[in-house]
């Protein structure tokens, strides 16, 4: 497991972190201390506040809220910045990163907001989407526009499975006396033909709230739903004939309350790590939802 600590910056456009640290942590053999494997200063002025780092085949991608995107290889200590993409009028953006088995290349995708117009009932968004490819032998890296997403993509970290990126998007927002009710969908972007298809959220939640999370578990799309501070349910997606359906795998009762959200990471068949608020790590049995070990992060 590679750990990249983040520091919260109140003014992300005016302040930056001078260094990025990488740690290696193996809870099965390391009970207390993570091993420091790399420290990098990616740019003279530091790195702006970044969202959750992404990884693929030993490469780590670090996207910042200001649009700067970095790729690092901890094994070789290489750290490079990708060229800037299309201007985004919002800091609420996320980046996808993964391997395309059809072309044998690595691809980075980003969504951006060209403009928006707020109305009394709803807001109109003009959104775009573009992809950068590397590993194809072309020295010059450049972003190429795809078709626009059918719905505005939410500022939540997307998931990559072989050949596809999965984004959470807002299908509709209903204003009931100024109280907004979101209906979200999942947009699956195909790296093969650069197209989007629309799929439903699991039945446990019509909206990906700040307490819920999309992730990947053992090669499957996973939805972690936490309706209350002590309750977590894990849903797995099945893809048959390009139709996604959901099945609840287990329910978990946390021994401590979560304040923000719970992350899941597979470590073996039927076993996952649950990270509660990035502070506590539990080993969870997916068959019955039992927790067997706890580690302090």
Automatic annotation (TrEMBL):
Pfam families xref list: FBA_3
Top-rank taxon: Eukaryota
Domain F-box associated beta-propeller type: start-end pairs: 18-249
Entries under NCBIfam families matching the protein: F_box_assoc_1
Designated name of the protein: F-box associated beta-propeller type 3 domain-containing protein
């Amino acid at each position: 497991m590679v750990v990249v600590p983040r520091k919260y910056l109140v003014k992300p456009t005016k302040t930056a972190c001078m260094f990025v640290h990488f740690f290696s942590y193996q809870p099965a053999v390391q009970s207390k201390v993570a091993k420091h494997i790399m420290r990098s200063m990616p740019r003279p002025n530091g790195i702006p506040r970044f969202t959750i780092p992404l990884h693929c085949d030993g490469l780590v991608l670090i996207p910042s809220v200001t649009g700067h995107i970095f790729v690092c290889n901890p094994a070789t200590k290489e750290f490079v910045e990708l060229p800037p993409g299309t201007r985004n009028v919002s800091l609420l953006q996320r980046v996808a990163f993964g391997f395309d088995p059809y072309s044998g290349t690595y691809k980075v995708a980003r969504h951006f907001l060209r403009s928006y117009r707020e109305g009394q009932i709803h807001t109109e968004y003009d959104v775009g989407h573009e992809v950068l490819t590397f590993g194809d032998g072309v020295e010059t890296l450049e972003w190429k526009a795809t078709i626009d997403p059918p719905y505005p993509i939410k500022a939540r970290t997307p998931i990559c499975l072989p050949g596809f990126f999965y984004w959470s998007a807002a299908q509709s927002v209903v204003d009931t006396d100024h109280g907004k009710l979101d209906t979200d969908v999942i947009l699956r972007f195909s790296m093969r033909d650069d197209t989007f298809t629309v799929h439903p959220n699991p039945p446990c939640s019509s909206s990906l709230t700040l307490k819920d999370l999309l992730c990947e578990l053992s090669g499957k799309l996973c939805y972690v739903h936490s309706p209350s501070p002590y309750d977590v349910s894990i849903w797995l997606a099945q893809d048959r004939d390009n139709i996604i359906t959901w099945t609840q795998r287990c329910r978990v009762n946390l021994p401590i309350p979560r304040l923000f959200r719970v992350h899941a990471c597979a470590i073996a068949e039927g076993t996952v790590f649950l990270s509660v608020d990035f502070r506590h790590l539990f080993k969870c049995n997916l068959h019955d939802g039992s927790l067997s070990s706890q580690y302090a992060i």
